Model the fold of this input.
Amino acid sequence: MDDSQHITYSRNVFIPITNICRNNCGYCGFQSGEPYLIGPERAREIMKEGLNQGAVEALFTFGEQPQENRVFQNKLRQHGYDSFTNLLIDIFKSAIEMGLLPHTNPGCIPKKQFKELAEYNASMGLMLETTASLPIHTHSPGKEPEKRLELLRYAGEQKIPFTTGILVGIGEKIEDRIESLREIQRIHDIYGHIQEVILQGHSKHPSSNTDLPSAGQKEVLKTVRKADSILDG
Done:
């Protein structure tokens, strides 16, 4: 059996550190519910539960640049921190001490902060989403395609193992998906650091602010076929 017939995976424990985010994407339900911030103690509890279930990786995600929000700043001080980066690093260190491999998707953040976090992660991630400028991202400063591409390139320059991907069904055209995949491949051809490309179909969330329907199975499969012909590790 050749490699194309094998599917590999890594058991991970998912830890969404905070749902506070500077972006306001029309399709996103991540910020639904009360604003929260998970501290190191609760993070360790979640990681321990994951270890008991056989997890080998700790997947961290959080709203993009939440420190711009006053509510977040208050919650950060309640945990005894004045720096979000320091809180995150303490959590990453705990993951490593527990035998887990940290992987973090921090959103589109400054390069200096990205590099600081990467030092305590086995790999990092940032969804490109699309190279198209879409109305649904009007109120999301972190979703400007060139800013996200710049961070993908920076990760390559720093030789950081990286996960990225695109969204299907957020108002883009099939041509946009093709161009997004080609851009990912072009960047990987230069730096060789992209280890995973996610093709994520839009799934309409009850609290989202969009009339766009969930992506259909046929549309997602069509995109998978295009990706198979474009992406070459």
Q: What stands out?
A: The helical segments are 40-52, 70-78, 84-97, 111-118, 145-157, 174-191, 217-230. The mean pLDDT is 93. The domain at 1-125 is CATH 3.20.20.70 (TIM Barrel). Residues 174-191 form the longest helix (18 residues).
